[in-house]
Design a protein that fits this description.
The chain contains 10 helices and no strands. 32% of the residues are buried.
Length: 194
């Protein structure tokens, strides 16, 4: 099995988890965090989707992000280009209050389609190539995805490979945060969706 096949083995079916984590939740349960150290479930789903879009489209494929390919900001109800890293609690709360759930689910589906398209077209050898500083700065800093955290994100990604980026932003990062979302769901008193 090659690296792309391994990626798809873990990536295929991931989106059953957001479906289950949302199942039966009220609007308040989606938009509020049960503790000040946590983020709302809706924000988490937006964050993983923005990170995947920024990483796969912008950094891996060096092309326009899905967010910039259509009226996504108006459908989402937010104009924010950042991926959420380094947002203040007030910014998280504000974004969570304005996010449109159906717009977010449609954006998530479009990002998944783009990820599949990009990875299918990507030559396997390209996964071993290092991320380039100019592209990192273009997407994270100039392009606004990193916000105030852009310099720290560029530093964290510099020296990493495209394969690392793909595994991180489309797999491990997503699974980490969806685990948080399930924990938050349980803290709201919602029944187990399984």
């Amino acid at each position: 099995m090659n690296a792309k096949a391994l990626f798809f083995e873990r990536y295929d079916g991931f989106d059953e988890y957001p479906t289950h984590v949302l199942d039966g939740l009220t609007d308040e349960q989606l938009r509020c965090a049960p503790h000040q150290a946590l983020n709302p479930i809706l924000w988490i789903l937006w964050h993983i989707t923005r990170c995947e879009d920024m990483g796969v489209s912008g950094l891996l494929a060096n092309r326009k992000q899905v967010l910039d390919d259509g009226p996504w900001p108006s459908r989402l109800g937010v104009e924010d280009r950042r991926v959420g890293t380094g947002m203040t609690k007030l910014e998280v709360t504000d974004l969570s209050a304005r996010l449109d759930l159906q717009g977010l689910l449609a954006y998530r589906a479009a990002v998944v389609d783009r990820t599949v398209e990009v990875v299918n077209a990507l030559p396997l050898a390209e996964l071993a190539q290092p991320l380039q500083a100019d592209n990192l700065e273009r997407v994270l800093d100039t392009g606004g995805a990193g916000g105030m955290s852009a310099p720290l994100m560029v530093e964290a990604y510099l020296g990493r490979t495209k394969g690392w980026l793909l595994g991180h932003l489309a797999l491990t990062h997503n699974y980490y945060h969806i685990g948080q979302a399930f924990s938050i769901r349980a803290m709201t008193g919602a029944p187990d969706p399984w």
